[in-house]
Design goal:
Blueprint (H helix, E strand, L loop, with lengths): L2 H11 L2 H8 L6 H16 L7 H8 L1 H9 L3 H12 L1 H19 L10 H17 L5 H14 L4 H34 L6 H12 L2 H9 L1 H21 L10 E8 L7 H4 L5 H13 L2 E7 L15 E6 L7 H19 L4 E6 L5 E4 L4 H13 L8 H12 L8 E6 L8 H14 L3 E6 L13 E5 L10 H10 L1
Parallel strand pairs: 3-4, 3-6, 6-7, 7-8
Antiparallel strand pairs: 1-2, 4-5
Helix pairs in contact: 1-3, 2-3, 2-7, 3-7, 4-5, 4-9, 5-10, 6-7, 6-10, 7-10, 8-9, 10-11, 10-13, 11-17, 13-16, 13-20, 16-20, 18-19
Length: about 475
């Protein structure tokens, strides 16, 4: 096993949620439960060689046969496949597998004893627990394993144990496959620069809270719709984005000697038609004495460094009137904008606003918390009234902060409110002149901006069903990104 695998299985086996399963009081001694969990963790995410089978049987008794039977089940193969890809899924798998193994060894799960082999295995469990409690020696335990193995000529014990594992782990496989799909969705939605572990940890927090995870599952169809919208925005953004071209010098301003054959004066090419002059041409080319045009202009042999641009503040309407398609478009827009700003290294703040003096800022600066913040937003139900005045005040407060002076500002709303405070309008106009901030407004599902057009550089009206490339939210992202 590699060092990385060693670190990984220890991390999984020592996770708090696994330790809760291990720590539950049982007839099996605590240190043995810890050892079994460690073995299962190693087997789940790496490889564990057993060099001395007799010694392994002597130490682990009934668990020795149980582990062999477990590894023959399709459920084990599927759980291991998912565990290798994700620490979170490995932890969840280990909880289910270890719990089932403990229940079998603790006789919490009643095993059938219709055959001699099955009765022998149940007896081996009793002998194993006794040995673990130092009431029997290891040699006796090894003999017990040999006796069960030799008497079980028809493989009744592995079949029995395999059936128990299939009954108890099939539901776990289905559940974890759903979690795996959810993790994949989250990775599609969230900024690419964030750590996969942060995304998985954010989702794991939801799994541990019944009400939050129920909400996540309830919104499964909505999440897919958000991903579909993000895909549409991504295609529009990429398809119509401005390409960076490589330019070479192209303006002729003089004639002089060089060996630049591509820009040689036409009269020099006549030499190539006469054999004796062809040698002269080649000689002059090597010596840099050909008459050529001298050019000047841009010469970009590679893409220029992007210009460093300032931060972006998105004020998103999270009121009840946004419910439905506008809410989904807003969430897709937030996630897409977060991706673009991260790619360009620009600081990005999202503020949800609704009723008077209600606001919620998303913590996107901390990469480890960004996934949780965005996931909270995706699962949040938009509700309440809309108040543009308080949204404008919030925007002014943010732009008054040192880190956000001169930031681009985006309003995303359905226009179901009005700007009634004229002093706020004046403050916004003064701020634009003073700091150079650009303010954009996107109205979704309505043709009224509620007065926001008075403080905006540009205002877009976006239908909720279809839109063209020019009126797409991607076009707005592009304008903000390109400065």
């Amino acid at each position: 096993m590699s060092r990385a695998d060693g670190v990984r299985w220890r991390k999984i086996a020592n996770d708090d949620s696994v330790r809760l399963v291990v720590g539950r009081p049982r007839r099996i001694p605590r240190r043995r439960r810890e050892e079994i969990a460690a073995i299962l963790a190693q087997e789940l995410v790496g490889s564990r060689a057993v060099t001395d089978v007799h010694r392994h049987a002597a130490r682990h008794g009934a668990f020795h046969l149980l582990l062999r039977a477990l590894k023959e089940t399709p459920e084990w193969d599927r759980l291991r496949e998912m565990s290798i890809k994700s620490d979170i899924l490995a932890i969840l798998s280990l909880r289910y597998i270890a719990g089932t193994a403990f229940d079998i060894l603790d006789r919490t799960i009643e095993l059938p004893t219709d055959t001699v082999a099955e009765q022998s295995y149940v007896g081996l469990i009793g002998l194993t627990v006794a040995a673990w409690r130092r009431k029997a020696d290891d040699d006796l335990l090894a003999k017990g394993v040999d006796e069960v193995t030799s008497s079980d000529v028809r493989g009744e014990v592995p079949d029995m144990l395999g059936k128990v594992f299939r009954e108890h782990l099939s539901g776990a496989v289905a559940e974890l496959e759903m979690y795996q799909e959810m993790i994949a969705r989250m990775k599609e939605m969230l900024p690419k620069g964030g750590e996969d572990a942060s995304i998985e940890r954010a989702l794991f927090e939801y799994l541990s809270k019944v009400d939050q995870f129920s909400e996540l599952l309830r919104r499964s169809t909505e999440l897919q719709r958000i991903i579909d919208l993000m895909g549409k925005l991504d295609v529009e953004y990429g398809g119509a984005s401005r390409e960076t071209r490589s330019f070479v010098t192209s303006e002729a301003y003089d004639i002089g000697p060089s060996k630049d054959v591509q820009h040689v004066v036409p009269i020099e090419l006549v030499k190539l038609k006469v054999p004796i002059l062809r040698t002269l041409f080649l000689s002059q080319m090597l010596e840099g004495q050909l008459l050529t045009y001298r050019l000047r202009g841009l010469d970009w042999t590679q893409e220029p460094e992007p210009e460093k641009r300032g931060p972006v503040v998105a004020l998103i309407d999270a009121s009840g009137s946004m419910s439905g398609e506008p809410e989904l478009i807003a969430k897709a827009f937030i996630l897409m904008l977060a991706r673009r700003m991260e790619r360009e290294g620009r600081e990005f703040k999202v503020i949800l606003f609704a009723a008077e003096d209600w606001k919620l800022e998303l913590n996107l600066a901390d990469k480890k918390k960004a996934a949780k913040s965005l996931l909270d937003t995706v699962c949040r139900h938009f509700e309440g009234n809309t108040d543009f005045n308080s949204a404008l005040r919030t925007g002014l407060e943010v732009l008054g902060q040192k880190n956000y002076r001169g930031a681009d500002v985006l309003f995303f709303t359905d226009g179901e409110s009005k700007v009634t405070d004229e002093s706020l309008v004046k403050e916004w106009k003064d701020l634009r002149k003073r700091t150079g901030s650009r303010i954009f407004t996107l109205i979704v599902g309505s043709d009224q901006a509620g007065g926001l057009e008075r403080v905006s550089d540009q205002t877009w009206i976006l239908p909720t069903s279809t839109w063209d490339a020019e009126g797409s939210p991607s076009n707005i992202i592009r304008i903000i990104a390109e400065g």
